[in-house]
Design brief:
The protein is mostly helical and about 180 residues long. It has one domain. About 75% of the residues lie in helices and about 0% in strands. It has helices at about 5-40, 50-55, 55-70, 85-100, 110-135, 140-170. The protein is elongated.
């Protein structure tokens, strides 16, 4: 691993970061926004409306559609500069972090395409990072399996880090947004 990491660091750190942002968005921000909408007295007469009752599930479906589309797109679109996907996901994360706190946008007409976009960035990063690692000339064939395993470990580190982030936010800034 010590020999492989310097050769792949620029790729694995992008995947780790994108997945941190992505899982914060879906597991923290979307859930808190949905709970806030359900608890809003202005929506008391709309509790049976699909867009309030199933807000989180609808956003999750949109996110999964984006992931599916982008993970299926490698033969059509190859992105060598995966840092662009990381930057775009950071912009998504930043907007949704602020939106979770201040509820600037709650319309599914806006949120659904945004969550498809979030899924596109995550799935696109995943397939392009793995493809880029397979194409690296600096990684020997005998190191390739280790490089892929390490990449997926970093992917999981991003996901686990987002769970810690969610716990911290739930017990601090977003405490009033929990159900």
């Amino acid at each position: 691993m010590a020999r492989i990491l310097p050769k792949t660091f620029h790729l694995v750190i992008n995947l780790c970061t994108v997945y941190f942002f992505e899982y914060c968005i879906i597991n923290c921000f979307a859930d808190r926004i949905a709970n806030k909408l359900k608890d809003d007295p202005a929506n008391a007469d709309k509790q049976d409306d699909l867009n309030i009752k199933e807000f989180f599930q609808i956003l999750n479906l949109c996110y999964q559609l984006g992931v599916f589309m982008s993970r299926s797109s490698l033969q059509y679109v190859k992105i060598k500069k995966v840092w662009i996907l990381t930057l775009l996901q950071f912009i998504n994360w930043s907007f949704l972090f602020v939106n979770t706190q201040f509820m600037l946008v709650t319309s599914l007409y806006v949120m659904c395409p945004l969550f498809v976009w979030v899924g596109l960035m995550g799935g696109g990063s995943y397939v392009n990072v793995l493809h880029s690692i397979l194409e690296l000339k600096t990684v020997k064939k005998s190191e390739m399996e280790g490089a892929l395993v390490m990449t997926l470990m970093f992917n999981d580190i991003g996901i686990i880090s987002s769970a810690f982030f969610t716990l911290i936010m739930d017990n601090s800034l977003f405490k009033s947004l929990k159900k």
